[in-house]
Design a protein that fits this description.
- It is a single chain.
- The protein has 840 residues and is α+β, with helices and mostly antiparallel strands.
- It is built from 26 helices and 10 strands.
- The strands form 3 sheets. The protein has a 5-stranded antiparallel sheet. It has a 3-stranded antiparallel sheet with strand order 8-10-9, with helices on one face. A two-stranded antiparallel ribbon has the order 1-2.
- Strand 4 and strand 5 form a beta hairpin.
- It is flat, with a radius of gyration of 48 Å.
- The chain starts with a helix and ends with a helix.
- It is a multi-pass membrane protein.
- InterPro entries: LSM_dom_sf, MS_channel_C, MscS-like_channel, MscS_beta-dom_sf, MscS_channel_2nd, MscS_channel_C_sf, MscS_channel_TM-2.
- This is Mechanosensitive ion channel family protein.
- It holds the Pfam family MS_channel_3rd.
- Keywords: Cell membrane, Membrane, Signal, Transmembrane, Transmembrane helix.
Length: 840
Amino acid sequence: MRLRTILLRTILLMTLALAGAHFEGAAAVAQEPQTQATAEAPLTDTPSDQAAKEIEKAKVQLGALQDSVKQNADNDDALVGLAAKADELSRAVITISVNVRPRFDQIKNRLAEIGEPPKDGQPPEAKIVTDERNTLAAERAQINAVTGDAENLSIAVTKLLNEIIEMRRQLFADTLFKRTEISVSVLDDAASAFVRETGEFAQALSSWASFVWKFKRFPLFAAIFLSLASALVLLSGSYRLFGAYLRRDEAVENPSYIGRLSIAFWSTLIRTLALSVLLVTSFFFLNSFNVLRPDIAPVIGALFGTIGLVYFVGRFVNAIFAPNEPRWRLVKLSNLGARSIGYCLSAMAVVNGLDYLFSSIGEAMGSPLVLTVVRSLIAALIIGIILIAVSFSKPMLARDGNPDAPGRHWPRGMAIILRVVGAGLIVTALAGYVGLARFVATQLIITGAVVATMYVGLLSGKAISRQESFGDTFFARFLTRRFNLGPVAIDQFGLLVGLAIYAVALLVGIPLILLLWGFHVQDLQLIAFRLFTEVKLGGISISLLGICTGILLFAGVYLLTRWLQRWLDGNVMARSHVDLGVRNSVKTGIGYLGVGIAAIIGVSAAGIDLSSFALVASALSVGIGFGLQNIVSNFVSGLILLVERPFKVGDHVVSGTAEGIVKRISVRATEIETFRKQSIIVPNSELINGLVGNWTHRNKIGRSEIPVSVAYNADPQQVMDILLELTAKIPLVMRNPEPHVEFLRFGPYSLDFELRFFLADMGDGMAVRNNLRIEILKRFKAEGIEIPLPQTDLTIHRDPRPALADAARDQTDGQETARDKPVEDEERPVRQLRGRAAES
C-alpha cells in the first residue's frame, strides 16, 4: 500500500513537471515566434516549390526543343522525333498543373475557415492566426503563378507542335512539287551515273558476301533459321485456325458469296503477314547479329520491302480476280480480262518495287540525284502507259455470263478515268514533276490494293454477321460439334465474328494507308496514344485505355466473385452440411458485395472521379422520394429477407394467392414455383408487409389428413382399427406423434372419420396419402365395409280433380278448359317436385 502511494506521488510530480515545461515552451514560442519558426522550418519543399522547379526544367526543355526544330527544319525524320518530345513535354506541363490543384483547394478551404482579418475597431486576432493566413496567402499566390506559367508554357508547346506540323507539311509539298528539268543531257548524265553505280554496288556486294561467308557464316544461318521459325509458327497457327479460309476447295462447284469473300480476305491477309514476319525478323536478326554492313543494310531492307510489296499485290490479284478459277472470282470479268488485269497490276507493282529498290541502292552508294530522278521518270512513264493500254482492253464479262467468251469494253466512265490518270502521270513526269508522278503511281498500286483488301474484309464481316449466314461456314459447324451450340448461339457468335473481322480490316488497313501517305511510325504511335488516353468531347476528357482497363478489372473481379461463390458453396458450406437457405443467402450476399466492389474498382480505374457522383446522388434522392419508392422498398425488403430469413430457398410458402416452393430470393423480388410449375415473381415488399405462411420454416414436419366416410351399418371401432393398422405399415409416417383417428360426425347418410398422421417431410405427403387411400379401399372391400353414396328422398304429391266440374261448365268454355286443364294438372306436380327438391 505504501509502495503504491509513493508511485502515485512520483507520477503526479512528473506530470506537473512536464506540464510546466510545456507552458514554458509555449511562452517561449509566443515571445520568439520568428526564431522558433526558423528553427523548425521544414526541410522538404512544398508542392508549390516542387511545381515551380519542374516548370523551370520544362522551360529549359522547351528552349532546347525550339533550337533543335530550327536546326532540323529540313529533316522530316528528326521533326517527327521532336514532335513526340514536344507532345510528351505538353503532357508533363499539364500534369504539373493538375498536381498542385489539390493543394490549392486545401489552402482555399483553410483560408475560408480562418476568415478575413479583423477590420478597424474590431478586437485583434492571435498572431499565430495572422501568420498562418499570410503563409497560406503567399503559397496560394505562388501556386497561381505556377499555374499561370504552366498555362503559358502549354500554349508555347502547342505552338511549337503546330510549327513542326506546318514544317513537315511544307517539306512534303516541296518534295512532291519539286520540278526537275528533263533534257537529253540529263538522260546522258543519268546513264553514266547508272553504269558507274552498278559497278560500285557489284563490288560492294561481292566484298560483303565474301566477308559474311568467311566470318559471319554461323550468324547468317542462325538469323535465317530464327526468321523461318517465326514465319512457320505464324503460318502453321494460321492454318490451324483459318485453314479452311486459306485455300480453295476444288470440289466446290458453286461456292457461296460469303465463302469467296472469306477466302479472298484471309488468304491475302494471313499469307502476306506470314511473309512480312519472315522478312522483318530476317532483317532484325541479320542486323542484330552484325551480319549487315551500314552500306548494305538499307539495300537489304529495300529488297525485303520490294519482295513484300510484289507478293502482296500478287496475293491480292489472285484473291480478287482468280484468273484461273472463275467460280471463285469476286468481280464480273472474263478469264482473259482477269488475267490481263492481274498481269498489269503485278507489272506495276514490280516497277514500283524496283524503283524503290534502285533508289535505296543509289542512296547507299551516294549516286547523284539525277539518276534517282530518271529512274522515277521511267517508272512513272511505264505505269502511265500500262494504265492507258488497260483502258482499251475488253475485260468485262460477256452478257451470257460465259467467262471463256470474249469480254466487253470497260464502262465508259472507268475507261476515261484510266486514260486520264495514265496520261496525267506521263505529262506530269515529262513536265519535270517526277516526285509527284512517282507518289501518285505508288499510291495507285499499293493504296488501291490495301483499300480493296479492306473493302473485301468489310464485306466479309457484313456477310458473316448477317442473320442465319454464319451457320453455313466451316467454323460454325466446328463450334456446333465441339461445344454443342444451338442455332441462336451460333447466330450471335456470327455477329461477334463479323465485328472482329471489321476490327481486323480497319486496324491493319488504316495504319498501312497512313504510312503510305507520309506518316511515320512515331506519328501513328502518338495518334494511338492520344486516342486511347485522351479523347476530348467538349470540356470532358475520356480515356479509352482507362475505360478498357476498368472494364477488364470489373470483369476480373466479377469472375473472381463467381469463383468465390462456387468455392464457398461447394467446398465449405456443402461439407459443413449448411442449410440450403443459408447457403443461398451467403451466395447472394457475396455476389452483390463482389459486384459492388467490382463496380467501384472499374469506375476508379476508368479515371472517373467518384466524388462527381455526389450531384447524381442528390438528383436521384429526389427521384427516390417520388418515383422510385417501390424499387427502394423492394430492395430494402430483399436485404431484410436475406438477413432475417423468415423463409429460404426450398421452403413451402403461402402468400396471398401464391403457394409453392421458393426457388430464388433476390434483392428485388422472390421467385415462387407453384405445384403446377408456374413461376410467380412476388415483390419483396409484399412478403415483408403481408402475411406469409411457411410450412417448412423450422422443419419439414407436417400433418396430413385423410377423410373417410362409411355406411351407418359399419362398426366404428373396426373402422378406426383398420385405419390405424394400415397407417402403421407405412415407414414414412412418424410414430411420435402417433397417428390417430377422429370420429367427426354423424353425417346425413354416413359416419364421418378423419385419419391424421405426421410426416417428417411434407413433400412426401401426396404420395403417402395416395397409397394409403388405395389400401383403405382394398381393405374396406375385403371387410365388407360400405362407403355410401349421397342419398336424397323425394316425395311427389298429386291432388285429385273432381269429375263433375267439367260437365257443369259451359259447353263453349268447357272445350277451352278441357284443353288447358290437363296441362295445368301435369305442371302442378312438377312445380311441387321442384320446390321440395330445393328444400331437401
